[in-house]
Design goal:
By secondary structure, this protein is mainly alpha-helical. It has two domains: 112 residues, Arc Repressor Mutant, subunit A (Orthogonal Bundle), CATH 1.10.10; 65 residues. Strands 1-2 form a two-stranded antiparallel sheet. Helix 3 packs across helix 4, helix 3 crosses helix 9 and helix 5 packs across helix 6. The longest helix is centred in the middle third of the chain and has 31 residues.
Length: 207
Amino acid sequence: MKDAVDRLTPMGVMVLALLREADMHPYEMVRLLRVRHDDRLLTITNGTLYHTVARLQRAGLLDEVGIDRDGNRPERTTYTLTDAGREAVIAWVQREIPKVDRPAEFRVALAEAHNLERDDTIELLRARRVALDEDHILHRDGLRKATAKGVPEQVLVEIERQEALLEAELRWLDSLLARLEADTIPWGPSAFTDSDRYLAQRKAAQQ
């Protein structure tokens, strides 16, 4: 399992996460990712997604469940998530949430964190907060020391920006943890419902 998780890309995780919702074909996956504006998280092209699906199938993380032909359209192969694929999504998200040095991966992990149970999510976010706080203190204290030593301000602007971003993320994370701990956010796989909006998205993606 570790090797499979290590080889997963953010695109691969998003494909597997889609299949946690329902079986679907790659064309529907691309459409659904775009309908949900997940292309803000990573570049989505038909070629990249089809290649990702092929790699995931070779790794045993998804499998074919049927081939459909609708009118003059090309054949479309529908895929389903295997047990190994289901476990890989969870393991990848659990691994990436606490890490503070992989911002691109964290955004995808956070987008898929609803696949985790509430207590697991809280524990992982608390671990992330510890790491963020340490990083923030390092930048804050380093900036103060450099300023006290007379280091020119123009060479400190990147450190200043990073310190401000870390401080802002800590405030946001404290707010999210408070909401999760107070149970004011529906959370976890069992909390997801087939809302009208979700069903409309699926229908639009299947056209």
